[in-house]
């Protein structure tokens, strides 16, 4: 058995597709009308589909999981983030952990937690 994808719920597939392309270079692989598979195994699912399936509300900013990306030139990444999405909500701005890794944490446009860190 192997993990194939990670799915996150979004309110606007097109807006989220652009966000993940702009910041991480992810490209669409398969678009199934409300389910969009991107490169690297990330799946965006329309909130309406998720709510209909679960029969429960989606809880934004639930802080129970995060998407983790690595970037060698993290300062350039943060500059791009601030230029393209100046109103992004940070959990923590660029910081350095005691072991030397630089990281930044923020929410995507739908409250999904993202961490970008330098390779360890």
UniProtKB/TrEMBL annotation:
Residues 2-119 form the VOC domain. It comes from the Bacteria. SUPFAM superfamilies: Glyoxalase/Bleomycin resistance protein/Dihydroxybiphenyl dioxygenase. This is VOC family protein. It comes from Coprococcus hominis (ex Liu et al. 2022).
């Amino acid at each position: 058995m192997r993990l194939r994808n990670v799915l996150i719920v979004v309110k606007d597939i097109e807006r989220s597709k652009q966000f993940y392309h702009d910041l991480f270079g992810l490209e669409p692989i398969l678009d199934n009308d409300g389910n969009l598979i991107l490169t690297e195994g990330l799946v965006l699912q329309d909130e309406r589909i998720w709510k209909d399936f679960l029969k429960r509300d989606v809880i934004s900013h639930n802080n129970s999981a995060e998407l983790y990306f690595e970037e060698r030139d993290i300062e350039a990444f943060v500059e791009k983030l601030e230029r393209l999405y100046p109103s992004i909500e940070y959990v923590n701005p660029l910081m350095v952990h005691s072991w030397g890794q630089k990281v930044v944490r923020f929410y995507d446009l739908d409250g999904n937690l993202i961490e970008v860190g330098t390779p360890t």
